[in-house]
Design a protein that fits this description.
about 70 residues; alpha+beta; 3-stranded antiparallel β-sheet; elongated
Length: about 70
């Protein structure tokens, strides 16, 4: 919920991307201010964004680990 400018979303997204809470391919929904770019976080790929007035929701998908190499 607003206000959005405190940096909490960036910190939360970094923590999620580094933790075991999010399974590979799992979804994260981030609420942020319209007109502001959603946070860019390694390991999370934005897949959709919708805007409702002054708020936007961006949906991120957790990175899937690479397939094991064949021998």
């Amino acid at each position: 919920d607003p206000p959005y400018g405190g940096g909490e979303l960036d910190r939360a997204m970094r923590l999620l991307s580094r933790s075991s809470l999010l399974m590979p391919g799992g979804l994260v929904v981030a609420e942020h201010e319209s007109g502001q770019n959603p946070p860019v976080t390694e390991g999370l790929q934005p897949v959709r964004s919708v805007t409702y007035g002054r708020s936007s929701l961006t949906f991120f998908k957790g990175a899937t680990p690479p397939a094991p190499a064949s021998v």
